[in-house]
Amino acid sequence: MYVFLRFVSYATAVFLGLYATLLGLLTTPAFQAHVLYLHKIQMTWFKDLNVPENFGFLPNQVTPFNIKSPLGGRLYAWHILPVELYRQHELALIAEPAGFVDDITSRTAFKLLREDHEATLVIHMHGAAGTVGSGYRVPNYRALSAGQPSKIHVLTFDYRGFGHSDGTPSEHGIIEDATAVVDWAMNIAGVPPSRILVFGQSIGTAVTLAVSEHYASQNPPIVFAGAVLVAPFADVATLVSTYSVAGIIPILSPFVRFPSLFNYLNTFIKDKWLSKDRIAQYIRANEANGKKYCLTIIHAEDDWDIPCHHTEIIFWHAVNATTSRGINYEELEATKLDTKSHLGAAGSVTEWRTDNGVIREEIPKTGLHDVIMGNAIITMAVMRILTIAASPLVA
């Protein structure tokens, strides 16, 4: 028994020592960036991103190319054709050389996007870790375009420091990258914002909201057809208060019981990603400008990476921003009890409408953090937004 107790005490001391070391490292911006973005975890080491056929795509269905970053570096991107449009132009597409292209404007796929005045472009903001070809992102691209397989193109890219993109990730830098990609879509590809839908998953939701708020605040304001947010988080401070590495090792959650200490540790957070504030600013800008907007927020109940109560916080901040008097959290929850649609095993849906916009909260019971991206709920969200964007908004 003595040997066992000594072993336990040593193991506990080692664990506490490692945990204290982790906390110390987390106060440094460089280590924070690695933990938050996980950009060095490629997840596609044994596949060449310049050969998209290795990821299940048809020959030249995907065009790999670079978009210039604000600092002159490279942002690696894929332009993905919807499958029915590909079928219609298959011979012309496979006749072109495969792989990375220096000048995408010379390619058939690009011309199909630019010259079709009914084409829609989904700009995809992915989550932490990996590249454009990692994990469930490939099924996600198919789900995004499945609703209109001759019209919905997908543009996805790696933030700076991810995959083949130059640089080191930071909140400011990633937002610059995303705006550069949106500018490319509007100015080079010639797709107007009314035919652009912005999609984000996990940390990509924070990027989506930052970009949407940025353009909505311009003079004149620019508002896209809509945005889909999958598994968002309120802000980084709230996220780390619940997050555990691999669902086991907590980061700051043990300190939540000590508010003063927890708030002190939060002062070391460099990239804050204040999504709850950005969504409110986005809504207020559109309501003030009388611009039509459409937001869908999707979060699986069984997501253990980012608990779905983050979406409830995001949804409340969005709804609260629609009214001049505001609505407190308890009032909204009471309203949701009366207006929520219960879909049995599929979960629930709550929709909030104003004269200008639609804010939709979808909480499916299953889907985890990543699997959900390839599910039909994603296809329906895109179809619903594009239908609303193409017709007068019914309040």
What kind of sheet is the major sheet?
10 strands, mixed
Q: What is the tally of helical segments? A: 14
CATH architecture: 3-Layer(aba) Sandwich
Structural class given helices, strands, pairing? alpha/beta
Mean of all residue-level pLDDT scores: 91
The CATH class: Alpha Beta
Radius of gyration: 22 Å
Strand order of the largest sheet: 1-2-4-3-5-6-9-12-11-10
Strand content: 15-25%
- pLDDT under 50 segments (min length 5)? none
| Tally of discrete structural domains | 1
CATH topology: Rossmann fold
Principal-axis shape equals globular
Number of strands: 12
Protein name: AB hydrolase-1 domain-containing protein
Pfam families: Abhydrolase_6
Domain AB hydrolase-1: 122-272
InterPro entries: AB_hydrolase_1, AB_hydrolase_fold
Describe the structure using short key phrases.
395 residues, alpha/beta, Rossmann fold, ten-stranded mixed sheet, two-stranded antiparallel ribbon, 14 helices, 40% helix, globular
What's this, in brief?
This protein is an alpha/beta fold and 395 residues long. Helices cover 40% and strands 16% of the residues.
